[in-house]
Design a protein that fits this description.
Layout: E1 2-4, H1 7-19, E2 24-29, H2 35-47, E3 50-55, H3 75-85, E4 89-91, H4 95-98, H5 117-120, H6 124-139, E5 143-147, H7 151-163, E6 169-173, H8 193-214, H9 220-231, E7 237-245, E8 260-268, E9 271-279
C-alpha cells in the first residue's frame, strides 16, 4: 500500500494507472475509519482494479462553532485498517497542500443545500462540493463511493457530477449500523454510555415511522410531530430537524404517496447525529 501526501505525486501515479486501462475506485474520508468506511472500500474493491482512499479533515465544511478542532483522528490506526482492507493507495494531504496561499475558488449548488443539514450549516455543502471536486481532479477516479448515511451529501455530489459533466460514476452504499442499530459515525466516540442509549432512539423512530406508513398512515406532518414529541422526552436532546421529503429533490412533502426520505439531525449532548431511511 502506497501512502502519498502531495497532489502532484498522486496525479502522476493515477495517470500511469489509467494508461494501463485499470479502473480506479475512490473512497474519500475524513479519517478515524470504522466499518462504514470499510464497507465502502469493500465495494470499491469488488468493482475496481485499484482502490484509492483519501484521509483529510476538510476545514471548509465546518462552521465557526462546529467540532473541527476536536474531530477525532488516528492516522496510524487508519493506515493499518486501510492496508488490511486492501486499499492500494492512501492520499493524506495537508490543508496547505489543498488550500494554498490566497485560495479563492469554491463550488456552490443553488437548490439541494437549501434544506435539511444545509439550513443549520449554511456553508457546509459549499465546502463539501469544493473538496470533492478537488479530490476528483487529483485522484481521477472512474468510480467514487459514498455512504447513504450522509444522504444529502450524496445527493449534492451526484447533482454536481451531472451538472459539471464529470466523467465519474457515483456509487451510493447502504448505511452500516452498530449491533445496537446506531448508524456508524466517527462522532459516536463522543457519546457517553447514557447518551448512546438516547441516540439509539433515532433509528427506532425511523423504524416506528416505517411501521406506521406500512399500516396506512400518510400524513407527513403528523408523523414528524409524533417523532418530535418522542425525542423531546429524551435526556440531553436538541432537535436540528426532522423531515419527510422527496427522495430526489429533498423538498418537504405533506402526504406520503410513494417512496420518500425521512431524515433527522439531533444533538445528543454536544454531539450532532444524523440518520435517515427511505420510507416505502
Amino acid at each position: 500500500m502506497k501512502v502519498i501526501q502531495y497532489p502532484k505525486e498522486i496525479q502522476k501515479l493515477v495517470n500511469d494507472i489509467r494508461k494501463t486501462d485499470q479502473t480506479i475506485g475512490f473512497v474519500p474520508t475524513m479519517g478515524y475509519l470504522h466499518q462504514g468506511h470499510i464497507s465502502l472500500i469493500n465495494a470499491a474493491r469488488k468493482q475496481c482494479d485499484q482502490v484509492v482512499l483519501s484521509i483529510f479533515v476538510n476545514p471548509t465544511q465546518f462552521g465557526p462553532n462546529e467540532d473541527l478542532s476536536i474531530y477525532p483522528n488516528d492516522l496510524p490506526k487508519d493506515l493499518e485498517m486501510a492496508k488490511q482492507a486492501g486499499v492500494n493507495i492512501v492520499f493524506t494531504p495537508t490543508k496547505k497542500d489543498l488550500y494554498g496561499e490566497n485560495y479563492q475558488t469554491f463550488i456552490n449548488l443553488t437548490q439541494l443545500p437549501n434544506c435539511l443539514c444545509g439550513l443549520s450549516r449554511p456553508t457546509h455543502f459549499q465546502g463539501v462540493a469544493t473538496i470533492v471536486t478537488k479530490l476528483f481532479n487529483i485522484v481521477k477516479p472512474h468510480l467514487a463511493f459514498f455512504g447513504e448515511k450522509d444522504y444529502q451529501q450524496l445527493a449534492v455530489i451526484r447533482q454536481m457530477v451531472t451538472d459539471l459533466n464529470m466523467d465519474i460514476s457515483i456509487v451510493g452504499c447502504p448505511i452500516v449500523r452498530e449491533k445496537d442499530g446506531l448508524a456508524m459515525s466517527s462522532r459516536n466516540v463522543f457519546l457517553s454510555d447514557k447518551q448512546r442509549q438516547t441516540a439509539l432512539n433515532l433509528y427506532k423512530i425511523l423504524l416506528d415511522t416505517q411501521e406506521k406508513v406500512s399500516s396506512g398512515k400518510t400524513n407527513a406532518n403528523e408523523l414528524i410531530q409524533e417523532a418530535q414529541d418522542l425525542i423531546l422526552t429524551l435526556p440531553e436532546t436538541k432537535i436540528d430537524y426532522i423531515k419527510i421529503c422527496n427522495k430526489d429533490t429533498l423538498a418537504d412533502i405533506s402526504k406520503i404517496t410513494g417512496a420518500c426520505l425521512m431524515a433527522l439531525a439531533v444533538h445528543v449532548g454536544k454531539t450532532r447525529l444524523i440518520d435517515n431511511m427511505i420510507l416505502q
